[in-house]
Structure formats: C-alpha cells, structure tokens
Design goal:
It contains 10 helices and 9 strands. It has a 7-stranded parallel β-sheet, sandwiched between helices. Helix 2 crosses helix 8. The relative contact order is 0.14. The protein binds NADP nicotinamide-adenine-dinucleotide phosphate.
Length: 281
C-alpha cells in the first residue's frame, strides 16, 4: 500500500492541476487529494476564499464568462509554465419537472454544466497540445447515463457532457491528451442545498415534486463522501492508459451495470419502483 502511494506521488509530482468549483464538496476534496499526491493545484471559485484547513491556491473564475476563464488559465500558465490536468467540476442542478423551467433557466444551467466545460477545455487545449501531454477529467453523474425525473434538465446537461467528452477524446487522443468522465451517484456535498428551484412551477407536479425533494434528501443522508469521488479522480488522473469512464462508489457502479445489461423495459420498470414513482404503462 505504501509503495502504491509512493508511486502515485512520484507520477504526479510537479504536475499542475486546475480544479473548477473547488470551494466545497467534490471539488474541494479533489483539490486536497491531488495536492497530497504531489500536484501543484489551482482551485477556482466565483468568490474565492481560503477553505478551512486547506492551503489550496484559489483563483477567481466564473465558468460562464470567456474572459474570466481565459484570465484564470493565463494566470496558472504564467506561474507554472504548464497545465497537466484540468478537472471540470463546477456545476449545479435544477429541481422540478422538466416542464417547470423556462428556457432562460435551462440555458443558465447549461452555461455552467456544459458550456463551462467547453470554455475551460478550449482555453487549456493549446497549452496541452504544445506539451503533447494533458488530461481532462469531466465530472458527469450517473444521471448522465439514466433518466432523471424531476431533474430532467440537469440530467440532460450531464448526458451532453458525456456525448461531448467521448467525441472530444477521439479527436485529441493523437495530441497526447485524454478525456475522462467520472460518474458519481449521490454524494454528500452542498449540491442539494445549492439546487435551484424551477422558475415556472405548475400545480399538477406539486405533490410529486415534493416527493422527489424528500427522496433526494433521504438519499443524501447515506450518500458517499466526496473523498470517495476524489480518490477515483486521482486514479483517473494518474492512470497510464485511462478508461473513458469511471463510476465513483458502489451505487454508481451498480446503476451503470444495470443500465448496460438490463433490457430497456425491465430497467424502466425497476427504476420507477426504486425511485418511488407509481407503476404505469
Ligand atoms: N453531490 C452529488 O450528489 C453529485 C453527484 C454526481 C455528480 N455531481 C457533480 O459534481 C460536481 C460538484 O458538485 P458538488 O456535489 O461538489 O456540489 P457543490 O458542493 O454545490 O459544489 C459545486 C461547485 O460548483 C461551483 N460553481 C457553480 N456555479 C459556478 C460558476 N458559474 N462558475 C464557477 N464555479 C461554479 C461552486 O463554486 P463557487 O460557488 O465557489 O463559485 C461550487 O464549488 C457538479 O458538477 C455536480 O453536478 C454531484
């Protein structure tokens, strides 16, 4: 175990990593794990403040703004002369039925969860290409693999990250750069407190929406810790030949296997049952 730890530290030593959304949750845990493994880590936040018990170097960045992303990447490159790892972690969800969000609200979420990823990747690619080396890790979700009733727009944004990442990985592999997806299930962070309520609520969904919120709160009480996800991210960052996808935690692994191997109708029926939706044709 000690030898394994030492080898991970050696592989990672002196490498530069950027972690977006590193003030809390999965981002903060990842920044700490990478730093402990020897990376020089730059965390980003819209309002950076030193996190308690952490000396991660924090930079201001709003992933919805091109200039903000460009300035952050220039600052990191100016200080270190290289960027080896980008972890696209910043993201949030909207809770409510699909029909209950305005297009404006949907766009605002995609601007972080999908276009934020596109912005940071476009900013680091010229640097990684010039190094002929680099790794990009995008935090997806099991909701990028399966349906997400009452979080449909969030699920759609993660399905989009999945499709974008898989295609991009094929395009840039020849440049020494790999793209990896991390798929956690429920993880105990501020994610549920930071959920944005749908901005066009409709009476017809009220009871079910409240039920979904209760279900999410319950799931969060037994969810994996963010450290579980962070350790998988370190593994994906340091693997000599990484997989395209890594599930994080046993629940996520189970969901991913069921999705792949259970026939569609069977999956649909058992999924509705598991998440407490009434059986219906
Ligand atoms: N928790 C779960 O159950 C779960 C499961 C699967 C996947 N995920 C994914 O994991 C990632 C991290 O979420 P978390 O659970 O750790 O939640 P969290 O504690 O709420 O952290 C979200 C982070 O995103 C950042 N962020 C939000 N909007 C941003 C913007 N416009 N520009 C830059 N940063 C922004 C926040 O940073 P500032 O507010 O400091 O700017 C915050 O650090 C997300 O992509 C989420 O979709 C979470």
């Amino acid at each position: 175990m000690a030898a394994l730890k030492e080898s991970v530290v050696n592989q990672a030593s002196k490498k530069t990593a950027i972690v977006t959304g590193a003030t809390s949750g999965i981002g903060l845990a990842t920044a700490k794990v990478l730093q402990a493994a020897g990376y020089r880590v730059f965390g980003t936040s819209r309002n950076p403040a030193p996190a308690a018990g952490s000396d991660i170097q924090m930079l201001t960045c709003d992933v919805t703004e091109d200039d903000s992303v460009a300035t952050m990447v220039e600052t990191v490159f100016g200080e270190t002369g290289r960027i080896d790892l980008l972890v696209n972690n910043a993201g949030f969800g909207i809770s409510g039925a699909a029909e209950e969000s305005s297009v404006e609200q949907a766009k605002a979420m995609f601007d972080v969860n999908l276009f934020g990823v596109v912005r940071t990747i476009r900013a680091v690619l010229p640097i990684m290409r010039s190094q002929n080396d680099g790794r990009i890790i995008n935090i997806s979700s099991v909701l990028g693999l399966i349906p997400a009733p009452y979080m449909a727009l969030y699920g759609a944004s993660k399905h989009a990250v999945e499709g974008y990442s898989e295609s991009l990985d094929h395009e840039i592999r020849g440049q020494g750069i790999r793209v990896v997806l991390i798929e956690p299930a429920y993880t105990r962070t501020s994610f549920d407190q930071n959920l944005v309520r749908s901005d066009r609520p409709l009476d017809i969904y009220e009871i079910e929406r409240a039920g979904r919120d209760r279900f999410l709160r319950e799931m969060m009480t037994t969810a994996d810790t963010p450290e579980v996800v962070a350790k998988v991210i370190l593994m994906a960052a340091t693997a000599a030949s990484p997989n395209l996808r890594y599930t994080a935690g046993s629940k996520a692994r189970q969901v991913s296997l069921l999705r792949r191997f259970v026939p569609a109708k069977g999956f649909d029926k058992s999924y509705r049952k598991q998440i407490g939706l009434p059986a219906a044709s």
